[in-house]
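Dear H.,

Thanks for agreeing to be a second pair of eyes. The structure we're designing against is below in token form, covering all 382 positions.
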């Protein structure tokens, strides 16, 4: 009896072992999908998905790929394409920078970042643009505004002009609302990334010693090659121009910055009409902020007053060049405190050209009110 039980147990165990080993082969024989599988119906896209799809379909044709060649060299044609390269960073040996732009109007003006085309404009190079259709056309620089990191290009003859982007406003943006970026990161055409507006009223250093205020911060992925591309709201309207990222690695870390569209909508028409932006100012040269801070001064030190400027006519006084005695310190403007140059710049730019500005000016421990009008002082710091 015991021997029979052992034999039965061994047989069952052996059978289970054989079944275990053979199971994959049996399943493969019985259930292998050796023909195309039928498609499972998914139903309609969600409302949010439809909104995003429609937004991209409307906006993408207006977004272009910008190529700025610092020095036209035939050997650049022998180098591999930057399909997965460095975006607007300069490609080794070729002298080419690439970025993004978008069509501004029916005349073929394209807005992009100044730093995307800067090397070509300074070095007598060439600029070309690839449209969403794949057509490549030449372009020339109409005007640049380094203080705002903006540039306007004029497209050459095209088979069919892309439509301009719809323009929104940055005045009523809210932290947390959806944001969409379209660009060419690392040379990959027409990439859509999504996120939210992470913060408002950021400050961003630009060229010529200026600091741009009111900058939009977003976590929509922005990488090298996105520069100059549009930041859109959920209605597909332009709300900013992507210009910079904060990233220790050089890739997206979820902190991107965009020039607000209200600034763009003021600067771009000036660039189209005049080739430069008319910067409203009062005619002062400001002292170094770090030096003022070391001296315990809270405000903008007037280093020098330009002759004939509104500041000169209002009696503002700069630092005495012989004794080094500090003259006036601007501590307020249009009812807002002024702690640094960007505070004063923001108030003056909001006021616009030929508009009144009321300053609070401190001299010898006493504060007085000074009223003056802004003028175009594009060649000065204010």
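And this is the sequence the design step returned. I haven't edited it by hand at all.
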């Amino acid at each position: 009896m015991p021997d029979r039980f052992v034999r039965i147990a061994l047989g069952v165990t052996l059978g289970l072992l054989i079944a275990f080993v053979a199971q994959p082969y049996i399943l493969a024989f019985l259930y292998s999908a050796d023909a195309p599988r039928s498609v499972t119906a998914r139903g309609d896209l969600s409302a949010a998905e439809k909104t995003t799809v429609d937004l991209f379909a409307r906006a993408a044709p207006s977004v272009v790929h910008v190529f700025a060649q610092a020095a036209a060299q035939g050997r650049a044609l022998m180098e591999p394409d930057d399909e997965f390269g460095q975006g607007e960073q300069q490609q080794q040996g070729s002298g080419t920078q690439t970025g993004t732009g978008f069509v501004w109007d029916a005349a073929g003006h394209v807005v992009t970042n100044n730093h995307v085309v800067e090397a070509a404009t300074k070095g007598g190079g060439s600029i070309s643009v690839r449209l969403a259709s794949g057509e490549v056309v030449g372009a020339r620089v109409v005007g640049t505004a380094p203080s705002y990191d903006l540039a306007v290009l004029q497209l050459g003859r095209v088979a069919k002009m892309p439509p301009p982007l719809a323009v929104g406003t940055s005045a009523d943006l809210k932290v947390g609302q959806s944001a969409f970026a379209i660009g060419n990161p690392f040379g990959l055409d027409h990439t859509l990334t999504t996120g939210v507006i992470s913060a408002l009223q950021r400050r961003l250093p630009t060229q010529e010693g200026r600091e741009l205020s009111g900058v939009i911060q977003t976590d929509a992925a922005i990488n090298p090659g996105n520069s100059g591309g549009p930041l859109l709201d959920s209605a597909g309207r332009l709300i900013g121009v992507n210009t910079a990222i904060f990233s220790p690695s050089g890739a997206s870390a979820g902190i991107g910055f965009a020039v607000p569209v209200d600034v763009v909508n003021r600067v771009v028409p000036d660039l189209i009409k005049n080739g430069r932006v008319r910067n409203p100012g009062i005619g002062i040269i400001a002292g170094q902020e770090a030096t003022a801070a070391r001296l315990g001064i809270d405000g903008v030190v007037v280093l020098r007053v330009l002759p004939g400027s509104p500041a000169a006519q209002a009696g503002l006084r700069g630092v005495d060049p012989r004794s080094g005695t500090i003259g006036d310190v601007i501590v307020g403007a249009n009812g807002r405190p002024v702690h640094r140059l960007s505070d004063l710049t923001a108030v003056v730019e909001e006021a616009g050209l030929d508009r009144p500005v009321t300053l609070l000016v401190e001299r010898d421990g006493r504060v007085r009110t000074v009223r003056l009008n802004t003028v175009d002082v594009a060649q000065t710091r204010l």
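Two observations from my side: The longest strand covers residues 191-205. The first helix runs from residue 2 to 31.

Warmly,
E.
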